[in-house]
Amino acid sequence: MTARTAAFVVALVLLVYLVLMGGRAITMISSGEPVFIALGLAILVFPVLGAVLVADQLRFGASTERLARRLDDEGALPDVSHLPRRPSGRVERDAADAWFDAKQTELESSPQDWRRWFALAQAYDLAGDRNRGRRAMRKAIELERDDR
Q: Relative to the CA of 11, which of 2, 84, 98, 122 has its CA 20 to 30 Å away?
């Protein structure tokens, strides 16, 4: 199963859960009892919030894939195949840190280039800092959108 398929399966399962929770919330709200109305409204917040978060993550994934395809078509997709790996498949820490430093230096020379932000996001991911990697990828997506 690919990561993309897994993401859609998880999103579908979550969607079913959110629909069921939303149904329970509506049942509680329509009961007419003040306590149940308050609980129903509180429960209704979670399905709505969950749906918004899932939609955002799916949109983020699709945008990331689009940028990767575009870079691949241009022949500019960052290549990490030369980096030494552990038996687990992860890039060795020293190599990931060195590659990160190189990508950060490249970004400093061209901070408005979405391609540099994409490479930095990948470097953050290899270095194990996924939060900053996601922020860098969001910046790449934003800059690429402005570039079109």
A: 122
Q: If residue 133 lies in a helix (H) or strand (E), which one and from where to where?
A: helix 130-147
How do residues 70-118 score in pLDDT, each as one tens digit? Answer: 999 999 898 888 899 999 888 999 999 999 999 999 999 999 999 999 9
Beta-carbon neighbour count of residue 50 at 10 Å? 16
Residues contacting 71, CB < 8 A, separation 6+: 77, 78, 115, 118
Alpha carbon of residue 66 to chain centroid: 13
Please state, in angstroms and as integers, the Cα–Cα distance from residue 90 to each residue in 1, 80, 87, 124, 135, following that order: 20, 11, 8, 13, 21
Beta-bridged to residue 91, according to DSSP, are 85
pTM of the model: 0.77
